[in-house]
Write a structure and sequence with these properties.
It is a single chain. The chain is flat, with a radius of gyration of 31 Å. The chain is built from 8 helices and 9 strands. It is of the alpha/beta class. It has a 4-stranded mixed sheet, with helices on one face. It has a 3-stranded mixed sheet with strand order 5-7-6. The chain has helices at about 5-25, 55-60, 75-80, 85-95, 105-120, 165-175, 190-205, 270-275, and strands spanning about 40-45, 50, 125-135, 135-145, 150-160, 215-220, 230-235, 255, 260. It is about 35% helix and about 20% strand.
Length: about 280
């Protein structure tokens, strides 16, 4: 690369940097009516440490404006709320309206984050928040005190008929280590729901076609002052197991007439039997 080309590129980079600095000097609150404020940053801490927990991030109701390359609020600076001129209307379409701070949404976020922690097994979790404001730009700080989590000390199955095939099937499945619920694990409601779904699929694949997730319930027994949980899973009613009585092959079956049409001698019965997995 020649010295002339290098000098040209350097000049263009300096111009672009200067333009970016000038553009960045514009305030993201310029087109927001006073005394409204804009959410600039949101910080979440759990037990005094920054949190990257996606569940807590999803519980936050208001998120800060986007920063291109992590620092430059390009889309927010482009936005304009004036529809008088064509270029301001174009900016409104290209840009993103900055999020106006809403204290009520912060309170809702606190409750949502607390529910998220409870669902993970932290039943005594508490969430507080505070804000700092600089030039109408708000930084929201959420602080989560997780507390001591509740853990599963024991887990047992309680079925209507303990001697049934269903009970034997579930006990074998549990002994094989397929369960989402482990003794010593957190009392995580997400895992309990996943276990309901998994058991329902297991039973349906073994002939219990009328079994539903709603037939499964969990009871968590705790003692005052203890964080150990005795968990029980209940199947609330008896279920009939369906078996295949027979399999019939009907070649050239016509869906309209409901009958076999044409000659079926072109295929041998033993070929169908070999290919049938039922």
């Amino acid at each position: 690369m020649s010295k002339l080309t290098t000098k040209y590129i350097r000049q263009r980079l300096l111009l672009a940097l200067a333009g970016g600095i000038v553009f960045a000097s514009c305030s993201v609150t310029k087109h927001i009516a006073e005394p409204q404020q804009v959410v600039s940053r949101v910080n979440v801490e759990v037990d005094g440490k920054p949190s990257n927990d996606n569940t807590l991030a999803l519980a936050v109701g208001q998120h800060p404006y986007h920063r291109t390359f992590g620092f430059f609020p390009l889309s927010t600076l482009l936005w304009h709320n004036d529809s008088t001129h064509w270029y301001t209307r174009l900016r409104a379409k290209l840009g993103t309206e900055p999020p106006v701070y809403d204290p009520f949404m912060t309170l809702r976020s606190e409750k949502a984050m607390q529910r998220a922690m409870i669902n993970k097994g932290y039943l005594g979790a508490e969430v507080t928040s505070d804000t700092t404001v600089h030039k109408r730009k708000v930084t929201v700080n959420y602080r989560v005190d997780a507390g001591v989590p509740h853990r599963i000390a024991s887990y047992k199955l309680l079925l209507v008929d303990p001697s049934s095939h269903m009970n034997q099937l579930l006990e074998r499945d549990r002994a094989a280590g397929h369960s989402n619920i482990k003794e010593g694990g957190l009392l995580d409601r997400t895992r309990l729901e996943a276990e309901r779904t998994r058991i329902t699929a297991l039973l349906r694949n073994n002939g219990y076609y009328d079994f539903n997730k709603e037939d499964i319930s969990f009871v968590a027994d705790t003692l005052a002052g203890s964080y150990d949980v005795d968990l029980s899973m209940f199947a609330q009613r008896l279920h009939e197991r369906y078996v295949i009585r027979s399999v019939r092959f009907v070649p050239n079956y016509d869906l309209v007439s409901g009958e076999a049409v044409g000659d079926s001698d072109y295929i041998k019965p033993q070929v169908l039997e070999e290919k049938c997995l039922i």
